[in-house]
Amino acid sequence: MTDARILVVGQLARDVVLTVERMPPPGAAADVRERRELLGGKGANQAVALGQLGARPVLLAVAGADEVAEDLLGQARRDGIDVSSVVRRAGAPTALIVEALDAEGRWRYLQHIPDGMLLTEADVTAADDAFGRADAVLVQLQQPPATALAAARRTRAAGRLLVLDGAPADDGHRAPLLAAADVVRADDRETELLTGVPADDPDRVRSVATELLAAGPRLLALGLGAAGNLFVWRDSRSGGSAALLVPLTREKVVDTTGAGDALTAALTVALLRGDPPDAAARYAVAAAGATVGHPGGRPELTAGALRDRLADLDAQLPATAR
Ligand SMILES: Nc1ncnc2c1ncn2[C@@H]1O[C@H](COP(=O)(O)OP(=O)(O)O)[C@@H](O)[C@H]1O
Ligand SMILES: [Mg+2]
C-alpha cells in the first residue's frame, strides 16, 4: 500500500529559520546568514514527509483565522496535503516557531503556540470521518493528553494502525495511550521519559522497552543519542522480542530539526507497505539522515537521498543484522 491515506494529528505553525554563525550573548546582535520562512510545526512536517514518500497525507491541526494561515494552507495544498480537516479558529494568531541555528548545528526555538491553536477533544470528534477513512493515524503527544487519547481511541475503534510520536506523560493518560498504540517513537529525551533509563545505556533501554511491548505497542523506536536509534518489536515467530540498533548516517549535521518527524513518517509508510520491522527501521533512519543536512524542519525526501542513506546504513551494519 504505497498510496495509503495517513491522518496526522498534530501541530501546524509558521516556521522562521534564522541561521547565524554564532549565537549572540544577551545585549548583542548577530547577522543572519540565511533566512527561511516555511510551513512548519511537527504535524505539517510529518505530513510533508508522508507526501514526499508517496502516501496521501491528511492533516488535523489548528490554524488561526489570519492571513498567515492562508499562506501556510496554500503551501500545504501544493505539498499534496489534504487540509480539509484543518480547524480554523479565530481569537489567536496561527502558531509561530522561530528557530535560531548556529554554525555548530545548535538550535534554539522561540515558540508562540497560543492555547487556542491546540487541538481539543471536540476537534477530534468533529474530524470523525477522517479517522474512518485513514489507513493509519499518526498522533503527536505534544498535543494536550486528553486530545491525544481521544484520537488514539478513535483510531483503535476504527481498527487503524496507530503511531504515537513522543513520550506519554506519566499520568492517567499514559497506560491507555500505550495500550492503544501499535508503534511508539521517541527522541533521545523522550526515551528517558518513557523508559526511565538514561539514553546512553542501550542494554537497559532494551530491557525496559521489551517490558513496554507488553503494555500495548508492537514496535518501539527509541533515540539513543550518538549510538543511533534502537528499534524493539514483538517477534511473532519466537513469541518473544527482537531488536535492531540502527546507527546514525554519516554526514555533517546542519540541523536535526524535523529529522524525528521524517523518521516517524517513513516508519509509518514502510510498515503500511508491509516492510518487516528491520527494513522499516533502516528506511526510517535513512529518512532522518536525509533531513539533518539542511536548516529547518521541512524534509526533502527524494528517492536518491534515501538510497544514499540506506547504502550508508548497510555499510555500517554487520552482515548478520541485514
Ligand atoms: N546523522 C543522522 N542520521 C540519522 N538520524 C539522525 C542523524 N542525526 C540525528 N538523527 C536522528 O534524528 C532524530 C531527531 O529527532 P527529534 O529531536 O525528535 O527531531 P524533531 O522532533 O525536530 O523532528 C533522532 O531520532 C536522531 O537519532
Ligand atoms: Mg521530536
List the helices and strands and how they pair.
Elements: E1 5-9, E2 13-20, E3 32-40, H1 42-52, E4 56-60, E5 62-64, H2 67-78, E6 87-89, E7 96-101, E8 107-112, H3 121-126, H4 128-133, E9 136-140, H5 145-158, E10 161-165, H6 174-180, E11 183-186, H7 188-195, H8 202-213, E12 219-223, E13 229-234, E14 241-246, H9 259-272, H10 277-289, H11 303-316
Parallel strand pairs: 1-4, 1-9, 2-7, 5-6, 9-10, 10-11, 11-12
Antiparallel strand pairs: 2-3, 7-8, 12-13, 13-14
Summary, kept brief:
By secondary structure, the chain is of the alpha/beta class.
Word description of this protein:
This protein has 322 residues and is of the alpha/beta class. The chain has one domain: 3-Layer(aba) Sandwich (UDP-N-acetylmuramoyl-L-alanine:D-glutamate ligase). Helices cover 36% and strands 24% of the residues. It has 11 helices and 14 strands. The strands form 3 sheets. An 8-stranded mixed beta sheet has the order 4-1-9-10-11-12-13-14, with helices on both faces. The longest helix has 14 residues. The model has no long low-confidence stretch (mean pLDDT 96). Bound molecules: adenosine-5'-diphosphate (ADP) and magnesium ion (MG). The site of adenosine-5'-diphosphate has 19 residues, from helix 9 and helix 10. Adenosine-5'-diphosphate binds next to helix 9 and helix 10.
Q: Please give the alpha-carbon distance between the first and last residues.
A: 23 Å
What low-confidence regions span 5 or more consecutive residues with pLDDT below 50? Answer: none
CATH fold-type name: UDP-N-acetylmuramoyl-L-alanine:D-glutamate ligase
Mean pLDDT: 96
Helix tally equals 11
Radius of gyration: 19 Å
DSSP strand tally: 14
- The CATH level-2 architecture is identified as 3-Layer(aba) Sandwich
**DSSP strand (E) fraction?**
15-25%
